[in-house]
Amino acid sequence: MLTYILKRAGFNLGVMVVVVTLTFFLMRLLPGDPFMSQRLNPEIKENLYAKYGLDQPVSKQYLDYLAALARFDLGESLKYPGRTVNEIIAESFPVSAAVGFLALVLALVLGVALGVLAGVWQSRWPDRLILACSTLGLSIPNFALGAGLVYVFALKLKILPVAMLERPVDLVLPVLTLAAWPAAVITRLIRTEMIEVLKKDYIIAAMVRGLGPASVVLRHALPNALPAVIHYSGPLAATLLTGSFIVEKIFALPGLGQYYITSIGNRDYNLVAGITIFYTFVLLISTFLTDLLAFSMNPQCRYRNES
Amino acid sequence: MFYSRIVQNRFVLACLFLILLYILISFGGTFLLPHHPNAQSLTEANRGPSFAHWLGTDYLGRDLLARILAGVRVSLIIAFFATLINISVGFLVGSAAGLIGGVVDRFLTGLIDLFWCVPPFLVVVMLTVVLEPGLKNIFIALGAVFWVPTARIIRGEAYQLRNAPFIRLARLQGAGYSRIILLHILPGCFPVLLTTAIFSIPDAILAEAFLSIVGLGVTAPDASLGVLISDGLQSFRVYPWQWFFPVLTLTMFVLCFNLLGDMIHRSFRDRTKGILEYD
User: Which residues does the UniProt record annotate as the domain ABC transmembrane type-1 (chain B) (predicted)?
Assistant: First the structure.
């Protein structure tokens, strides 16, 4: 177990280094520079370059960046003067994470419940209905769903606000928008697993022993169908927690996803690299945690992880 | 025989028919319309659906129906070429890794693992910025990330086939790697490639829409479904039809491909496990 954790930690560190290097050099390969939109005097530009250390050779910049990174310092934003990347992340991540966490919980609860129902009633009408809904959920992109929800609930029915972030109710629409797609995926995942599991001998044995249907499904079948969902929810959690550009744009949420895309356009080298590193970090941590969870639930996963 | 059985399914037939309709109308329909997709008429800007403009006009008074048809065409072209890159690069890399083995396998698998770790939208967004947004560069950028999962699945397939009797026989008869890959591995991987291709098209269309909303879509005045949706998102609170019709067109199309893919995926059940992360 310990060797496994150490091995994983080493591998994750390697991935981080690769991602840092790639974003660092890819950003500097992009045409243009961070100050091109401001039409500055060449001298001012030179001073700005010197201030942020951009006049140094790239290899020196890279080493400096790595050294700062080891101290968890992501540097200063080039577009928002005086604000460090750490501050921007600390400010906007909680907003994205709150919406993302609620969406994750909703998707998991809804997906598992519907998936179990569909799997138990395989090929009967509840299954067909749920399957149809989940296929629809997979096909409606979030920019369609989000704007549609705003139009119906905020503009026509006027029950929910268009874009506000004051009361908990304001989170309903963004959370629904974010949760729809993963809920559909989880539903189908659980359904397929349940159908497989329900054919197993130990399920028949449990029924022969006289256990009720609820007990058979919830205590004997479901735990064996869950690992697939747990594996899927690792990367999903990272994506949802770090925010979605489109959902944040539609609902005007001050989250991380917005900063990411705009900072690429702004050539804000430090902010792009910082958010990418942060995202990869969250991704690796959540994948690692979900793997450990699956591992503790089912010793069979051990072989899958180590190979 | 097997393929004919799939086509006999009524559901699949309906999806195929709709997809064909999309292709035909988008490539042929524009010649029948009185309006050019880029023709502006500011006096008629932001009009709702009417007899002259069936689906209304946008903020520059351009006919929305003509723009949607042109947009479907551009989106289809992007999706087609992104899928083509996905399938061909994925197949070549995967089959070379699985069949040749050894150092080649280790190098290519390492490459696949590396790409697997980098967030795909980061690569797409950066590549589009580096290459400058445009029809050709969008599908190149999409193809550059889409091939990774395909290569991984194909590698597994080729690895299993590597020591199959017919491949050994071909090798004994002096067939080179390229001959074995094209004549023996390709037919064996066909169900996998077909299913991957069908799921890759809606993925590409959605990715293109995402790029447009981010501001990296095809250059103005050209339209793609993504550009239309992105424009529609700006004004959907006031002029909902500018958002609704492009979104409906896109969702229907994606739904068709998802249903078609599901059916084909199900009929190859044992062969195509692992293509979808769900199911």
Answer: 72-261
Residue B175 lies in a domain: yes
Cα separation of A147 and B237, whole Å?
Answer: 9
What CATH code is carried by the domain that includes residue B205? 1.10.3720.10
For A11, other C-beta atoms within 10 Å of its C-beta total: 14
Residue B187 has pLDDT above 70, yes or no: yes
Residue type, B163: N
The answer to whether A247 touches A299, Cβ cutoff 8 Å, is no
How far off is chain B from A271, nearest CA to CA, in Å? 13
Contact of B59 with B45, CB cutoff 8 Å: yes
CB atoms within 10 A of CB A105: 13
Report DSSP letters for A60-73, one per residue: HHHHHHHHHHHTT-
Burial (Cβ within 10 Å: 0-12, 13-18, ≥19) of residue B25? middle
Looking only at Cα atoms, what is the longest distance across chain B?
75
Does residue B105 belong to any structural domain of this protein? Answer: yes
Q: Are B91 and B182 in contact (CB under 8 A)?
A: no
Q: Which domain holds residue B133?
A: 2-28+55-272
Question: Closest Cα partner for A221 from A241, A199, A239?
Answer: A199
* Tokens (6 digits) for A210: 């006289």
Structural domain contains residue B39: no
Q: Does the ipTM exceed 0.85?
A: no
SS3 letters across B121-168 = HHHHHHHHHHHCCCHHHHHHHHHHHHHHHHHHHHHHHHHHHCCCHHHH
Chain B residues inside the 8 Å CB shell of A139: 202, 251, 254-255, 258
Can you give the pTM of this predicted structure?
0.86
Residue B163 half-sphere exposure, CB side, CA atoms within 13 Å?
1
Any domain includes B35: no
CA distance A219 to A213: 10
* pLDDT tens for each residue of B233-271: 888 878 888 888 999 999 999 999 988 888 888 777 666
CA–CA gap between residue B138 and residue A251 (Å, rounded): 27
Please, what sign has the CA dihedral across residues B267, B203, B57, B33? negative
Where b means 16+ CB within 10 Å and e means fewer, B140-170 reads bbbbbbbbbbbbbbbbebbbebbeeeebeeb
- Contact criterion met (CB below 8 Å) for B71 and B245: no
* Domains identified in chain B, total number: 1
Cross-chain residue pair B119–A279, CB shorter than 8 Å: yes
The answer to whether the CB of A155 falls within 8 A of the CB of A162 is: yes
Short-list B43, B30, B40, CA closest to B63: B40
Closest CA to B230 of B241, B239, B217: B217
Nearest-by-Cβ selection for A245 from B214, B232, B251: B214
Contacts with A, B 204-263, CB within 8 Å: 206, 209-210, 213-215, 229, 232-233, 236-237, 240, 243, 247, 250-251, 254-255, 258-259, 262
| Residue range A93-127, pLDDT digits in tens | 998 999 999 999 999 999 999 999 999 988 888 89
Q: State the smallest CA–CA distance between residue A267 and chain B in angstroms.
A: 10
Residue B58 CA to residue B235 CA, distance in Å, equals 10
Closest to B88 (Cα-Cα) out of B27, B26, B151 = B151
Q: Can you tell me the distance from the alpha carbon of A166 to that of B24, in angstroms, rounded to the nearest whole number? A: 49
